[in-house]
Amino acid sequence: IDGHMESAFRLLRLMEGEGLAADQYTCNSLLHALCKDGKTDEACSFFDGLEDRGIRPNSVTFNTLIDGLCKAGKVDVARTFLEKMISACCAPDSYTYSPFIEHLCKTKGWQEGLSFIDEMLQKDVKPSTVNYTIVIDKLFKSRNYGLATRMWGQMVSLGCSPDLVTYTTSVHAYCNEGRLDGAENVVMEMKKSGVTIDAMAYNTLMDGYASVGQIDHAVTILKHMTSVASMPN
RNA sequence: GACUAGGCGGCG
């Protein structure tokens, strides 16, 4: 759909003209396209039109719209859809909360983000690695390393293992402190736990070495990247 | 069912 919204919606009308009904997946994709373009008003109208199409919104539908609204800064509107979601018997899940956590961390600080993790726990929605990674990243970036470490522990104790992104935020944090030894330790941990290191992760480490003046190390990583076919960006 | 959330850097 990217870059071809007009055509996509034209096709939708064409389909419907032929008596072919779009399904949930199709509508969710279109909704996502609108949200990605920041067209939240249109997204909301499209959402409202779903019932007339005989489409029942599912949790992906709500999650997509909530994400679009949060990214557009319309958190209050997003909240109303969270309510609607519940009254429509769509159980909010970890995807539902991420956009709130992300946006609130960004605008009101990590405390607000953490409050949403608490809300999830209270409502018996199991937080995911992604939910924790968002707050941990924000904590790292505001240099709250103690609390970040505690949240990391809480994440693991809930059965959520750190993934590629979680580890990368940690590498980034060490690099920001000029602690390349720590960054290397994290990389070793990644390898030990079988996480495949991607271009962004290598790039983070490379930048870390460069920013501390160790260009030779940076070049070594760059060579390694090309040798394992992880295209630098 | 290839539908939804998080990480680095550059450009705008």
Secondary structure elements and pairings:
Layout: H1 5-17, H2 24-36, H3 40-49, H4 59-71, H5 75-87, H6 94-108, H7 110-122, H8 129-141, H9 145-157, H10 164-176, H11 180-192, H12 199-211, H13 215-227
Helix pairs in contact: 2-3, 2-4, 3-4, 4-5, 4-6, 6-7, 6-8, 7-8, 8-9, 8-10, 10-11, 10-12, 12-13
The structure holds one RNA strand of 12 nucleotides.
Task: Label this structure with key terms.
233 residues; 13 helices; RNA-binding
Task: Characterize the overall form.
Answer: globular
Q: Would you report the number of β strands?
A: 0
Helicity, in percent?
Answer: over 70%
Unreliable runs, pLDDT <50, ≥5 residues?
none
The rounded Rg comes to: 21 Å
Short characterization:
The chain is mostly helical. It contains 13 helices and no strands.
Walk me through what this model shows.
- The protein starts with a helix and ends in a 6-residue tail after the last helix.
- It contains 13 helices and no strands.
- It has 233 residues and is mainly alpha-helical.
- The radius of gyration is 21 Å and the shape is globular.
- The model has no long low-confidence stretch (mean pLDDT 95).
- It has helices at residues 5-17, 24-36, 40-49, 59-71, 75-87, 94-108, 110-122, 129-141, 145-157, 164-176, 180-192, 199-211, 215-227.
- It binds one RNA strand of 12 nucleotides through helix 2, helix 4, helix 6, helix 8 and helix 10.
